[in-house]
Amino acid sequence: MPSTFIRVLVAIGGFIVGVLLVLSGFYLYPFPHVSRTARVMPDFGAGKDVEVYALDGHLDRPGTTVSITQGSETPFAPQPSGVQLLSEPAIHGGLALITRLRDERGEIVGIATELESVHEDSRLLTGKLMTHTTWTVVLPGHGGLFLYQVEDNWWLATRIVGPALLTGRPWRGQWRNLNTLGPLPNGHGRIVAATGDYAERRGTFVETAEMREFTPTGKMDFTMELRLALEPSMDPNSTSAP
Amino acid sequence: MRDSPTQLFAATLLTLWTSVASSQDQLAEYSNPEPGEKVLAFYSKMPEQAVAVTHSGHVGLGFFPADIPKFTEPGIRTGLIANLKLADANGQVIGFASELELFPYASPADADDVRWNTGWALAIAGRGMIFLEQIEHSGGLGPKVIQPTRASGKDWVGDWKITTTVGPLPNGRGRIIGGTGEFAGIGGSFVELDRLTRFTVDGNMDVELELRLFTK
What we know:
The structure holds two protein chains of two kinds. By secondary structure, chain A is an alpha+beta fold. Helix content of chain A is 18%, strand content 39%. Chain A is built from three helices and eleven strands; from the N terminus they run ααββββββαβββββ. In chain A, a hairpin with a 5-residue loop joins β10 (203-214) and β11 (220-230). Chain B is 14% helix and 44% strand. Chain B has one domain (24-215): AOC barrel-like. In chain B, strands 1, 2, 3, 4, 5, 6, 7, 8, 9, 10 and 11 form an eleven-stranded antiparallel beta sheet that branches. Classes of the chains: A alpha+beta, B mainly beta. Chains A and B meet through β2, β3, β4, β5 and β6 of A and β2, β3, β4, β5 and β6 of B.
């Protein structure tokens, strides 16, 4: 008859194996939303005016990104040195980014900020690590856009950021992803308001990303794009904001 | 040696005069709620609650952090972005925000009263987001504060309250243009109120900022 010690050992071992199996299940489970890039992107912008604005960051040279900060020093390296962290309890789960934007010719044509807050419906069980994200875009001479989307970062967290932080080794590759998950039924984000040339133009948008490297210190080689799909303007009059 | 009562009186008068002279309040009447309006206010203090501030240098203000990349490219050199933390009336941080400004070519550091367009995005933790647009004016910041500071080489210290909002609504207020979460469907107007108490030689400010939203 096994001793109490062995029984306890077996129980602990069984618990650990069970946890690992559950985590592996979540890691490997093909959550439907993870494959949305292939489903959503081919039809994006069909019949619409599509505009693309890009931002980037690099390890070996400056990118368009001006500032990134969040609640702590990880997962993304705060930049520049001395930028304030969102360290207070209420905003610890937030992220704030400032960037310049390039047009499709590579010219700097605008400035923008991205603000992210943790989405209350994020669940391990559903494979969703979501944020409420707003983009505010100013394109001097053209107008401004206030954009809102729900983002999902499950793949980014489990395949790129998590492994790099856990192993202490950089992730390298070429990962292209549609970050936007909604809130619109077709999986696009919403244009909340627009001014100047964009005033009264209905449309949607998505945020896509290409990650090429992510280091354990949170530095990245990446490109992100804001893709707008706009209906033709119905009212040439514009409001006053940028 | 102790001051005489006359000297003390004169010193008090001088202090009072200095205080009045430095207090150049420009608070617009439309900064107060109309009957039936509810007020929703958010506050921020700079430099304590500044997250990051950048522009091209065109506007005569400082940068935070000092080595933040600047908007030097021709297409964006009249732009400014300030990311700030937001607090409630008790000073508790409850959110964060981005202010995006697009200035004319005339700099508020040089011209008497410059007007520019501003967009705000507010992220209020656990509640939702709010989007605002306004026209702001400098109200004489250049000649009253920036130029004397540059000329003297000394920080400006005073107490100047100003409603920076001058539109685009006919009553002078800015417009609440939308929201999400708890603020979905929000509408109404708002003003930005700034209280400037220091302007340093390198362009940094001690400012208490209030975003005062008026909803029905």
